[in-house]
Design brief:
The structure holds two protein chains of two kinds. By secondary structure, chain A is an alpha/beta fold. Chain A has two domains: 49 residues, Helicase, Ruva Protein, domain 3 (Orthogonal Bundle); 134 residues, Dna Topoisomerase Vi A Subunit, Chain: A, domain 2, CATH 3.40.1360. The longest helix of chain A is centred in the N-terminal third of the chain and has 17 residues. Chain B is of the alpha/beta class. In chain B, strands 2-1-4-5-6-7 form a six-stranded antiparallel sheet. In chain B, strand 12, helix 13 and strand 13 form a beta-alpha-beta unit. Classes of the chains: A alpha/beta, B alpha/beta.
Chain lengths: 204, 388
């Protein structure tokens, strides 16, 4: 439909998550209008990210060095490890500024439909880490499982609980329940059921 | 609740058509293949639960890309406008009083209706699948928030089946997670089953009363059929559903799942659980030749099966109006044709005591015509008020 180089760009862009053919076309035409240096900046940053960013050898978060910024930071509490599915989850927890411990990124969740089992996740590495803590830092005593509160995330959490409890660490799961500022009336049965199941005594 | 005005665009065989509806009985007449059922179907779609007989894609007129419904609805003291756009594959957009609503909130804001057509006979005659859907739909109609429970159950079952299927190919690693899926299945499966039994227990007294009224004699019995819930618990739960212990259901399911584990690994599919349960419909015969309880599915006559199915649907209506304190809209598609004159006249009278009703008929008899507050004639996708 368009000149081949342009069509190629549109095709490549529409492979990106969240971008359909229409958005891809819009972005492509925008890129046609920007100055060559601006376009070069984008191209370079894509190349650079592929060259320089890799996964942290300890926690599998994205990092620009062998070890990521959180694992390097000696001020962080190494007795708590928070297990998440994907690196963006770390950013979400960091924004709360409530958590000072370390992380572990599974790189997914158990989902037989997609053929993802425990072996495809960074679970073996997590066990290894818990058994052999880094030199000079206190070993982990608690693992917070912060996988997504959906069918797959829950299954992953249950699996981890069975695996980790025998190691003598305390395994906890993020509470799930009603969103703050939400309406009780419109909460769905599953959420409300969980909120009821996980209710807490007031003033305790 | 009732629909006062209905306009459809590109819906089934309708290009553009509109009609007023009476608060009581509306008789929809016309020859075959003119659009009588489609009009009833349009009213059913206003409940947000889609078509009672086919996937949404069939709702859109050939050549159009979306079907649109506009309605003026009265609920209690409130008057609402509903606008609905059904785009297959893109979902359904709903405006209530010109404001977009979505999800469970939309289901709660829309109308509730009970559809009864020739296909509803499969409720008695058909596979257990249809009876499970009837119960599950009612679970959601009664409490829209339970849609989440049903979705989670479907997801867990799919995941577990995918896992079992992958097992024979030697992925021992994945199988390490089977216990985890068993746990999830038992937890959510128990909740779903408790909800189904609760619905069945609530339907029973209404269905019994309705059946006796139409048939004149005989006693209807409903049971929950399950390979993993004990007979005693089923019977007990139908009498006193509030006393059902979900934990006990969970344990029963866990035990049943454990006992078929080897066979499940062998066959690569989940073999026990709510996905295989059924509702049993029994008729206690009172005629002189035979007494005893018979399975309606196998032993009842065609007319009797239709009567039982109708009794179940009317029971659904009764229970819905009891719980929601609003009378749902009753849609009767071509039901008179297979009932004998006695049962016909009973039904003609019974609909008068209900809320708004739409009845379709290819050749209305005296009973139907006398019962109608408004008669709408359908000719090739156009609507005409022919009330006298």
């Amino acid at each position: 439909m368009f000149a081949p180089p342009l069509q190629r760009l549109i095709d490549e862009l529409s492979k990106l998550p969240g971008i359909g053919p229409k958005s891809a076309q819009r972005v492509a035409f925008y890129l046609l209008k920007v100055t060559p240096s601006e376009a070069g900046l984008l191209a370079d940053s894509i190349t650079e990210v592929k060259e320089k960013v890799r996964l942290c050898a300890v926690c599998f978060n994205v990092a620009d060095e062998e070890i990521c910024q959180y694992c390097r930071d000696s001020r962080r509490d190494s007795t708590v490890v928070c297990v998440v599915q994907e690196p963006p989850d770390i950013a979400a927890i960091e924004r709360t500024r409530e958590y000072q411990g370390l992380y572990h990124v599974l790189q997914g969740a158990i989902s037989p439909i997609e053929g993802i089992g425990p072996d495809h996740l960074r679970i073996r590495e997590l066990l290894e880490r818990l058994r052999h803590p880094a030199d000079g830092r206190p070993p982990a005593t608690e693992v917070i499982v912060a996988t997504n509160p959906n069918t797959e995330g829950d299954a992953t959490a249950m699996y981890l609980e069975r695996l980790l409890t025998p190691l003598g660490v305390r395994v906890t799961r993020l509470a799930s329940g009603l969103p703050v500022g939400g309406d009780l009336e419109y909460a769905d049965e599953v959420t409300l059921g969980r909120a009821l199941g996980g209710r807490r005594q007031m003033g305790a | 609740m009732r629909v006062d005005k209905l306009a459809v665009e590109d819906f089934r065989n309708y290009g553009k058509a509109a009609t007023d509806l009476a608060p009581g009985v509306n008789l929809v007449v016309g020859r075959n293949a003119q659009g009588k059922t489609n009009l009833l179907e349009a009213v059913h779609c206003l409940s947000g639960l889609g078509s009672p007989r086919s996937p949404d894609v069939a709702l859109v007129r050939n050549g159009a890309d979306a079907a649109v419904l506009h309605a003026l609805v009265t609920r209690g003291e409130r008057s609402l406008t509903l606008d609905m756009e059904i785009k297959p594959g893109r979902g359904t957009r709903v405006l209530v009083n010109k404001t977009p609503v979505s999800g469970a909130r939309a289901l709660g804001a829309l109308t509730t209706s009970v559809f009864f057509g020739p296909d509803e006979l499969s409720l008695i005659k058909g596979t257990p699948d249809g009876r499970r859907k009837f119960l599950d739909d009612l679970v959601v109609k009664l409490r829209p928030a339970r849609e989440g429970l049903r979705r989670e159950w479907d997801r867990i079952l799919k995941q577990r089946n995918a896992l079992l299927k992958s097992a024979p190919r030697g992925h021992r690693g994945e199988l390490a997670t089977l216990d985890v899926w068993d746990d999830a299945m038992c937890r959510v499966g128990a909740s779903l089953t408790a909800a189904r039994i609760e619905v069945l227990a609530a339907l029973l007294p209404h269905a019994r009363k309705r059946y006796e009224a139409i048939a004149g004699a005989g006693r209807l019995e409903l049971t929950y059929l399950s390979a993993w819930v004990s007979r005693e618990l089923c019977d007990q739960a139908l009498v006193d559903p509030a006393a059902t212990d979900e934990r006990q259901l969970q344990e029963m399911l866990a035990a049943a799942v454990a006992s078929v584990r080897a066979r499940e690994l062998d066959r690569g599919i989940s073999l026990v659980g709510p996905q295989r349960d059924d509702a049993g419909v029994l008729l206690e015969a009172t005629s002189q030749e035979s007494t005893g309880v018979l399975d309606a599915r196998m032993y009842a006559s065609q007319g009797d099966q239709r009567t039982v199915a109708l009794a179940l649907k009317l029971a659904e209506l009764d229970h819905l109006s009891e719980v929601t304190r609003e009378e749902p809209i009753l849609l009767l598609d071509d039901v008179f044709s297979e009932l004998d004159p006695l049962r016909r006249s009973w039904l003609g009278e019974a609909v008068h005591d209900l809320g708004q009703t739409l009845v379709s008929s290819a050749e209305p008899g005296a009973i139907e015509s006398a019962a109608a507050d408004r008669v709408i004639e359908v000719v090739g996708g156009t609507l005409r008020d022919v009330s006298v």
